[in-house]
Amino acid sequence: MYLIVITMVGCFFFLSNLNVTNMPPMSRNYIFILILVYLIVGLVSFVSLLNNNFKTISKNKELQNKILETQLQIKNQELQYLKKQIHPHFLFNTLNTIYGFALKQSKDTPEIILKLSNLLDYILYQVNKPKVSLKEEVLHIKEYIELEKIRFQDTLNVNFTSKNISEEIQIAPMLLIPFVENAFKHGSLIEGYLTVDIDVNLNENQLEFSIKNTVISSEIEENENGIGLENIKKRLNLLYKNNYVLNVTTIENRFVVALKIFNINILKNE
C-alpha cells in the first residue's frame, strides 16, 4: 500500500508537469489517499475471501454428500448380508423338521411342505422390499406357529394375541419372525410341554412385541447367543437406531424378549 500511494502521488506529480500546485487538491492529501487505498484493497480482499469461502463450503458439502452416500451404501450392503443370513438359517431349521417327518413317513409331511411354501414365498420375495405391512408379518407368524404345531404335536402350548394391527403400519420384513423361530428352536420342554406366549400390540405410535418361552437353566446361554437373535439386533440398530428398546431377560424358567419401536407411524414411510 505504501508503494501504491507513492506511485499514485508520483503519477499526479508528473502529470502536473512537476508542479505541485497544479496537482488536484485531494492528490496532495497523503492521508486521504492512504484511506482510499485501504478501502479499495479491503473491498477487493473481502470479495476474494468471500468467493474462496463459497468455494470451500461447496467442496465441503460435496464431500459430505459423498460420505453420506458411501455410508448409505455400506448400510444397505450390511442389511443385505443380514438378510442372506436369515434366509438359510430359517430354511435349514424347517428342512430339518421335514426330514424328521419324512423318516417317520408321517402323513403330515405334505401339509408341512405346503405351509413351508407359503413362508418361502414371503422370505424369498417379500423380504427384498424395504417395508411390509405389520398385518402381513403377523399373518406369517401365525403360519409359522401352525407349522410348529404339526412338528411338536401334543407337546406344544402356544398363546398368541395381537391387538390393533393395521395394514397401514409398515415394518421391516422378517423383523419379528426370527424372535418366534428362536423361541421354538431353543425352547425347552418343561413338564412335557414347550410353552410359548406371543403378544403383538400397536398402541398409537408404538409397536409392542413380546415373546416368552420355557427354557431350562443350562440352555439360557444358547437362547441369548442364537444366530437369529444376533442378526435381528444388528438389523434393529441399522433400521431403528435410537428409536427402539429391546430387553432380553430370563425370569425363572422363561426366556423373555420384549421389543418396543417408537414413532412407528412416522417411520412407516421412510
**SSE pattern, N- to C-terminal:** HHHEHEEHEEHHEEH
Shape category: rod-shaped
Average pLDDT across residues? Answer: 77
Structural class of the helices, strands and pairings? alpha+beta
Strand content: 15-25%
What is the share of helical residues?
A: 55-70%
- CA radius of gyration: 36 Å
**DSSP strand count:** 7
Profile the largest sheet: 5 strands, mixed
Strand order within the widest sheet? 2-4-5-7-6
Helix tally equals 8
Beginning-to-end CA distance, first to last residue: 59 Å
Low-confidence runs (pLDDT<50, min 5 residues)?
none
What brief labels describe this structure?
single chain; 270 residues; alpha+beta; five-stranded mixed beta sheet; two-stranded antiparallel ribbon; 8 helices; 7 strands; rod-shaped
Secondary-structure map:
Blueprint: H1 2-15, H2 30-103, H3 109-124, E1 132-133, H4 134-152, E2 156-163, E3 170-171, H5 177-186, E4 194-203, E5 206-214, H6 220-224, H7 227-239, E6 244-251, E7 254-261, H8 264-267
Parallel strand pairs: 2-4
Antiparallel strand pairs: 1-3, 4-5, 5-7, 6-7
Helix pairs in contact: 1-2, 2-3, 2-7, 3-4, 4-5
